């Protein structure tokens, strides 16, 4: 009995350890969300700088670099936390090998920043190329947040991480829309397939924000709706309409590129407010869960202590433990089958054990439900991987192929991804 | 870059730690599988002893108790392993809180054994009650094996655990069939619903063995098929037919109870041979996975070492790490965007990172596939829990209700469980 209770308490302790590791991952996610926001601003400023041949946004870009570096320092200082140091670093991060690998990939992507910034400062790269390179770095950071959401152990925290990932991903699509739209206005007569890509980005944002709204919780949702009332939505939709009208022959006014950029930037900044609120809610949710798990564990320990003391009056616990397997009929083995605890105490311990087991199972079910919201992206990632392996495409080419197929067939990207995976045997491998 | 590589290696180390914890859980599962077998034999011997008013199987039962206690000592000695000791016990068990809670429940169930044995020795309980009490203890041990399969982190090991759980569960149904059949033969004119229950046990065994065969791997499958050729299948089927014929009015010959019991016991012993082979395969599979993960980690570490050395010739690594965020144009930030590693080395590190990430994702997908085989049981457990909460039934009553509904409607138990869960809002809660 004592051993059973020891394992019950060990399970509680293990749960608290898991939550503390999860809280640590959430801090990383918060720092990453701030860094993504700063990099999106840096990408925007760099585009104007490059597009104007260095004539505009030079000082703004320099100021933005400081903010980006501060945000990057925030992420890197998390990685230097003592809990992560030394030989045991693996164990301290919740989610283990998968999250650690994503951290490695994100750090590797960040290592490309100084080179990219050097190229931009010397105007050695075109706005398109700069956008794509920032996009890759941001994608690696988003993949880290995705993984953190996928490996989270607490349903409530997991739901908020799913919401945050979708908000960040939707905002990144909005950032891509800003860059592409600005280029289209500047071009005056854009190619129809580039305008098509705007449609895809609008659709992708809508999907992300729908999922975000489904998981962010009432308070953040209220805040999000309030933010939307101050977003320049009407102006944004008017400019979007002009972009689309260009496919029917009307020329775009290059002078509107700036209005488009400002309007989109304002929208992105307001999305960031929701991100900050959500990230704060995430931290609070972790702290609350840890506090309540600690209280429950203390209550349980006190109850078990009381039960043990009550039992000791009737038969020394240690005797039971020592002689349990010594043979039938030994003095410490009462014949009534209840051990020294008596039917009632025994009953309450059984209840405690079953309640814990059912609670953990229910949590695991809720977790699965939250995680299911991540399945679509996994499908798309897998289909991309398949196309890269079978067709020798780059990641970006694979994604474009899937997206074009979806657009031309009027199907959702996830459907095309599923169909692609179903064809795996046909596609074969190189 | 150095930090990215450090996290790549940390991910590997984390994977190896996970596998070592999994290997430890597999040792527990092996010990539990031996204990379940001995308890099934003890239950059988106790039934004959009780059924014969203590006239038969007294010495056999005493001998069996020694074997059962040895097997129990095997389980308990696992629990006293130094890796599990002290404050940190939670972290050492893979699967964390859920597996630890199942261990607590199993230990608690085992604590009821001395009392049950005392009742049997003093012939204070009937064979039915004894069967039910042994059944509860064995169910708690099976739930532990189920949980170990559900939380396993390696797809190959997980498949073997799914196979072992299904073999053990199928064998337990076979054990219940032995007990019930012996009682029916002894009764002479059994009630039709008790014969119905035999049909259910036959069906449940078939389902378990089908899943076992799907997951046990080629070698164990060959062994299993070979074992079946020496199982007393024809005799067993003949006796089963007699049991069923009793519902049409033919009386059962109580003298056949013993033939039935022997025939079933022989079959159970042969199933145990497959269990032992599978448990051995499980241990070997863990050891192989750990060895190969260690080799891969060493290869990777050596490769990274070589890459770092190559890089150090061109630019001191520490300078990069130290000055990365110091500002653009600092000497350690080469403008070509490849850092001190050069495009080729940088490429091979990216490949390494992506390969690891894809491997982990593929493993996670395979794991999900293996785990899906456990979903049916989870449905049934959840439906049982719902009925217990809403109808105030005991676990056994809830199970009987589901089973009877399934039998009377000719549907599978899992279907009825799913339908029950879908009705949750209608059933309400007390």
Span between termini of chain A: 59 Å
Biggest β-sheet of chain A, characterized?
A: none
Shape label of chain A: elongated
Overall residue-averaged pLDDT value of chain A: 84
* Multimerization state: homodimer
Our estimate of the beta-strand percent of chain A is: under 5%
Helix share, percent of chain A: over 70%
Q: Spans of chain A with pLDDT under 50 lasting ≥5 residues?
A: 85-91, 312-338
Chains forming the largest contact: A-B, 75 and 75 residues
> Helix and strand string of chain A, N-terminal first?
HHHHHHHHHHHHHHHHH
Number of helices of chain A: 17
Radius of gyration of chain A: 28 Å
Look at the helices and sheets of chain A and give the structural class: mainly alpha
Number of strands of chain A: 0
User: In the residues of chain A, how many domains can be counted?
Assistant: 2
Quick gist of this model?
Two copies of one chain form a homodimer. Chain A is mostly helical and 430 residues long.
